[in-house]
Every structure is written in structure tokens, then in C-alpha cells.
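for the record, two folds in this file. i put them one after another cuz i was lazy. first one right below, seq on top, C-alpha cells after. the second one comes after a little note so u can tell where it starts
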Amino acid sequence: MSGYAREFRRVTRADFPLLARWLATPPVARWWNHEWTAEAVERDFGPSVDGVEPNEDWLALLDDHPVGLLQRSRVVDYDENLRDFASLVEVPDGALTIDYLLGDPSAYGQGLGSSIMSAFASRSFIELPDAPAILVSVVAANVASWRALEKAGFRRVAEGDLEPDNPVDDPLHYILRLDRPA
């Protein structure tokens, strides 16, 4: 598998078995620490598919093959996100946040993470023209994740303790930011 993921499509219920498989893979499970039962996937991704919550779930595609998941929302859409970001950095009005994972093991180690984030950030700025910036929080121990963000043009703007997704992690997180291009 080679190339750059520049195509995206919204997650549908037909993708839930794929998401469950990805969430169960050790590299994803390590950082996402998410349940992967059918019930848990329905509970956590169903409202986005149905459009009843502000979060959007997207699949990153490489040659029409799903390789990753992205979740996009405004920081202010979720109190916990706003509280966490605001505890470490100023949150501009309208700022977005993106969470992401590479799910397909054949996509690991090829630089796709930075390619996906760069392309999805560009798409987000086009689709949401009032968003001044994208903020992402990453547990500091997840070196591959924050390095991929830096390669995609994000810059580290803060660090501090936040509740980690996985309780085995130290609470130290980095906040990375990408501003809308001029």
C-alpha cells in the first residue's frame, strides 16, 4: 500500500464491523482504549451517523480502500473538550478539533498519518470557512501521533496534564494547532 490518502467519506452503519475490527487491533486499542463490541460501536458512532450529535465521523480512503477514521467537531460542541483545551490554551471562537486513527495495519509506517491529517485539515477549512484553527490534544507518550501532526503542519502550542484515554498513560498531553492558511 502506497500513496497518499486524500479522499474521505462519511461513516455509515455498514462500516461499523470495520470500525470494530480497527478498534480491536493492538496499536489502535493501545491509544484509543475503546470498546469494540457491536453495541459499543453502535452507541458511540450511531449518533454521528444519524446526525443527532455535532461530531462527524469520516473514513480516510486510499485507492477507495478505508485506511483510517477521523472525527471532527467544534471544540465548543463538547463541554469536556472545551474544558480540557481551555485549561491549557486559548480556544479561538469556532475552533475545530479532530481525533483520528490509522486502522488498517497495512497502512502503518508509511507516513499516511501526516498525509491524512494534512488533507483532512485542508478539507475542513474549506467546508467550515469560519473555523480559524484546528486544535488537537495528544498524550505525550504517543510519539507517532504528535509527530504525524507536526509533519502535517501543526505546531505544539501547549503541554499539560489532562485525563488520558488509557489509564496506563501519564496525563501529560501536547496541544497542537493548525491555523487557517492566509
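(here's the note) second protein begins now
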Amino acid sequence: MVEQAIEISPEDIFGLIAFSGDAKASYHAALHLLRENKIEEAEAEVAKGDSVLKEAHAIQTKFVTLEAQGKSAKVGVLMVHAQDHLMNTILVKELLDHMMAMQKEINNLKGMN
């Protein structure tokens, strides 16, 4: 298969960074709200973060699809930085469910229910 070179736009790269950062901020906000026993508000922040994370993931999926089709791109430091942001946000999301469950248990033990 002959590879075709593609250009990754700065808009896509900065979109990955911005969407990932916004999602991560929502996840952190959710934990802070939960510490105050504001469960509904925390869950709304999680939903907001999930929605924004889908936007970031759509950009990444576009890159993966193009590469699977034999189209490659030169990857620079900025793209690596963007992928790092996305990976860290996904990790925060994976840990968030566990952390929220623990915080709810802590709140119950404190009698905050």
C-alpha cells in the first residue's frame, strides 16, 4: 500500500488540546462539587465533560481513520502535546467513576446525605 501524506491542521490540533482541557476541567469540577455533596451538579459536570470529550475523540478518530486508509501525516511536537492532553483526560475520566464512588461513600460516612 502506498502511503499518501496528509496535513494535520492547526485547528484540529488546538481543538484536541482545547476540548481535552475543557473536559478535564469539568471532571475536576465534578469532584469538587461532590465533596460539597452537590451530587446533581457534579453529575451535570460529568455529562458536560463527556460531551466535550466526544468532540476531542472525534478529531482523534479522524486521524486514526485516515492512517488506516494509508494516509499518514508528519507528527510534530504540537500534535504529540495534543495527544498527551487527550490521553490524560481519558485517564482522568477512567478514574473519575471510582473517585466519585469513593467520595459518595465518604460523604455518607460523614453524614452528609
